[in-house]
Amino acid sequence: MRPGWIRTLGLRGVRPRADLQVPCGSQGTVGVRRAAKTAVQAGWEEALRSARYGERTVQALLIVLADWRKRRHGSLMYRLVQITSEEVVAAYIERCKEANPYLNAIVEPRYEVALKEARVIDKMISSNDRSPDDLAKEYPLLGLPMTVKESIAVEGMSNDCGTVHSYRNPAKQDAAIIRLARAAGAIPIAVTNTPQLCMNWETYNNVTGLTMNPYDPKRTTGGSSGGEAALISSAASIMGVGSDIAGSLRLPPMFTGIFGHKPTPRLLSVEGHVPDCLDPNFEEYFALGPITRYAEDLTLLLKVLKQPGGPDVPLDKPVDVSKLKFYYMTGDNSKVTHKIGSDVRKAMDKARKHIKDSFNVEVEELNIQNIEHMWEISIRVLMNVRHVRNIYTHPEKRDQWVSVWPELLKKMFGMSTHSFTGVVYGPLQKFFDALPKSYYDNLLKMFEQVKTDFEKALSGDTVLLFPTYPYPAHIHYRVYYRFLNCGYLTIFNALGLPVTACPLGVTNKGLPVGIQIVGNKCSDHLTIAVAKEFEKAFGGWVPPNQEVINSIKTT
Questions:
Q1: Is 243 a catalytic residue?
Q2: 50 a catalytic residue
Q3: Residues 376-421: tens digit of each pLDDT
Q4: Which of the two ends of the chain, N or C, has the fewest CB atoms closer than 10 A to its terminal CB?
Q5: Which residue among 224, 225, 269, 416 is the active-site one?
């Protein structure tokens, strides 16, 4: 039987099993060490029951208990050391096996290999004479399981990014951020679903199929990091990494009630991602980043995964939220995007009211000249990135395309193995390329003015509250006639600004709702600090099927 600090989590419409338990809550390394001291003084069972442990705390607990293992001062110590990396990894593997049939979020698991790696870590900890602090400093993610979006290479795992192939072509080596995660002690347990080549806001492809939202299987998880978001939100994964070229680290977290972060450009390496790109400006708009259930884990992952020589982002710098300047916007005033609905407006008003009531800081409305053109500008800027790998990329001449029209005809007659969005990308690119260059040049002039105005407004310690999407998760496939609302997301890819997706509770229908917290370049620490404040105020992640969870008594 597992310790009492592990809670049971269930899915909507699924009866949770009392013996399937995963960590829930968040407290931090200091909290673990304090609880450990209490365990020695007052008894381990009471101490563990009184603490609310989270993802970051598990590895610290493992290190503390491993240090005690060497001493073996009687039955108390013996019982405390029963929590090992293998047990934590096994608990999440068990949860994946239970949840995935209802989510369809996992493309390929690596359960047996992950358990072997966990045993190696346990053996290393038990035979190591270094202090817990030294181990924690060198291996911040020691023994923790993680999941990875399929588009990010994990050696030996599927890396086809939802594309149908006649043969299996696994990743030959880890992506740069996966190498860093492994070096910090993390253990990948699965790669997760994504639309073909990440080109959709609905997580569906012709290989793995459709991923379901844990709050309502009739509804979308968003895309393209929908598999990661679904697993993490349903407590089948501690943490994960995804990618973002048009909102993929922000829309799925909003639809599933968790945290995501699109970092400052080039903070994390994009090496090892599919699709890749030959355009040197690609990384100004595209980013890899973390997805977590708890805001504090975003900082931990960014510190681990940031690439050497990247932008100087002071992730460890303390932030006094009461000293920040706050702006808000309710949209981009575009004539093609929907206005925010009542659920999102209530969430935005709740966030503004909390800042005003808690810190006596007025959240001012931000007005940017020509902001109404940013939908078109952002789409044109992103479509102007050249040589993104796609289904039309020539197999031998990387900077050239094969003909678009044969595949388009095959799709029209139901003979193509590629997704609709993958096929349409070619004609859409041809359309934009055929538009007058003079018109695009005029858009770029407006774009430079908008960028300058945003940079000026967000200078200093300033953040912007902005809707993620006009409404909570919609029914599957409705994105095809609501895709224009992507403007709420693509604007910040084009501007190259860091953004944290932050949940603000659930609607009356039990669907998560949240907002984007935007900062200036290299101000990632500010947006995450505000996300932590909102998490503390409003509770952050709300487990799916909360009423069922509350009715279950854990041992």
A1: no
A2: no
A3: 999 999 999 999 999 999 999 999 999 999 999 999 999 999 999 9
A4: N
A5: 224
